[in-house]
Amino acid sequence: MSRRLVLASASPARLRLLQQAGFDVEVMASGVDEDGVDTTDTRVAVTALAEMKADAIATRVTDALVIGCDSLLDLDDRAIGKPRSPAEAAAICRAQRGRTGTLMTGQCVIDTVTGKRVSAVGETLVRFGHLSDAEIDAYVATGEPLEVAGSFTLDGFSAPFIEGIDGDPSNVIGLSLPLLRRQLAQLDIRITDLWR
Amino acid sequence: MSRRLVLASASPARLRLLQQAGFDVEVMASGVDEDGVDTTDTRVAVTALAEMKADAIATRVTDALVIGCDSLLDLDDRAIGKPRSPAEAAAICRAQRGRTGTLMTGQCVIDTVTGKRVSAVGETLVRFGHLSDAEIDAYVATGEPLEVAGSFTLDGFSAPFIEGIDGDPSNVIGLSLPLLRRQLAQLDIRITDLWR
Which of A35, A63, A70, A111 is catalytic? Predict the structure, then answer.
């Protein structure tokens, strides 16, 4: 039995993850204001934002599975989102090089048929390489870090700068596919039934 | 200074990795016969194949950086390549579920200008989820496992079945980008100079 799948996020990286994994997905951006959320606790913040996004879309669709996600990088118990300027992007890259952070993705799935809802946080350790100042300058000049939480991504120019991860790679890109499989199982849905 | 980059592999996943990371790449399949290589030792096998592929292309191009790669999954000291039939794919999936293997990618880079050559093996732990028999049957029916070493991939239908990894995710897809950065540094080339 196939189901309508709705991604409550405008992120092209999340959409690509779902498409590469064989799902047909509709995109509906939630318009949730991310700046309004308290980020004192990174886990609490990504959970709240994921749920707000999923809730906002779930009220507007029927017969759908709605997925809301939000990602932040936690470094030294500080939540790092998208940098607001090239200078801030460079500062984040310098603070991260040679160190390990935790990419946290809040993920909320709502079945609008049953009204059931599941929510969890995926956590993946990210080991940053030892970037030179010249590499940081070149990376910031690409413009990419301004578009991604923590000023890096696994599926772009910065991939060679991430020495390794411990955990799920899709979680780092913004939507954890193994977590989605477990969440769907909680909703009595087999992920293989959603393949196109 | 930009350089001509040649991928000695017909793998669309490796090409996509390089393109997503910002490189313009030419593809030249090497025609190396992978079945002729002794796979008693997985590390030795992927190294030999990566070097054979890079060597085969390096003799045919000028002014280029040639990248040769080969990937095998090591499970219990046994090398697992692409399955030869749906039945073998299913047997591999059943043997792997709930367990941890090591994806090994041999990677050889040759600078045809200087004649210098560097070669290394990237290793990433892969933790397989507990798949049901129904999930394995559905996955084999997609045809995907027949195209990939170890009967799984991170960038396709099987992504939700990989609970996590420890190491570099691009290495699992077939070409380690952080290893490439270090190999280029050994050849006195900055990876940021190769961005388009």
Answer: A70
User: Reduced to 3 states, what is the DSSP secondary structure of residue A54?
Assistant: helix
Query: Taking CB atoms and an 8 Å cutoff, what residues of chain B touch A155?
Result: 20
Predicted ipTM beyond 0.90: yes
Q: For residues B37 and B19, what is the distance between their CA atoms, to the nearest angstrom?
A: 29
Minimum distance, in Å, between the CA of residue A68 and any CA atom of chain B: 17
Is B133 annotated as catalytic? no
Kindly give, in sequence order, each residue whose CB lies less than 8 Å from that of residue A99, ignoring residues fewer than 6 positions away: A75, A127, A128
CB A82: neighbour CB atoms within 10 A? 17
- In chain B the domains, ranked by start, together with CATH numbers, are 4-194 (3.90.950.10)
Give me the sign of the Cα torsion angle B155, B159, B162, B166: positive
- Residue A195 forms contact with B (CB below 8 Å): yes
Q: Which residue has the tokens 């090398």?
A: B79
Q: How many contiguous H segments (helices) and E segments (strands) does chain A have?
A: 6, 7
Q: Residues A104-137, buried b or exposed e (16+ Cβ, 10 A)?
A: bbbbbbbbbeeeebbbbbbbbebbbbebeeebbe
Nearest to B159 among A138, A155, A177 (CB): A177
Compute the nearest-CA separation of B177 from chain A (Å): 5
Q: How many CB atoms lie within 10 A of CB B141?
A: 14
Chain B hits for A157, Cβ within 8 Å: 21-22, 195
pTM of the prediction? Answer: 0.96
pLDDT in tens, B82-130: 999 999 999 999 999 999 999 999 999 999 999 999 999 999 999 999 9
